[in-house]
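Protein modeling request. Please complete all fields; requests missing the sequence field cannot be processed.
Requester role: graduate student
Desired output: 3D structure, token encoding
Chains: 1
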Amino acid sequence: MSFHTTHLATRAANLGQCFVALNPALFAGGFNERMGDLMHQMRSLPHVDPALPVLVPGGPSPTHLLLPTHARTLTWGSRA
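Delivered output (80 residues):
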């Protein structure tokens, strides 16, 4: 099976995706510091449920970090 076809179709798949990688330092200096400040501000917001942390997109999930390291690994194909 080709990457460009689905298991249900014989014609090319319409993936409709575009990925762009940008270097934020090309737009403004201090990106890492400013992003760190923003993440700190977001995580410091009042919690809707005090038992649950404020989650930020792209940040590690606290429940994910409780898993053993081998359970946090993505694998492709079968292991022999």
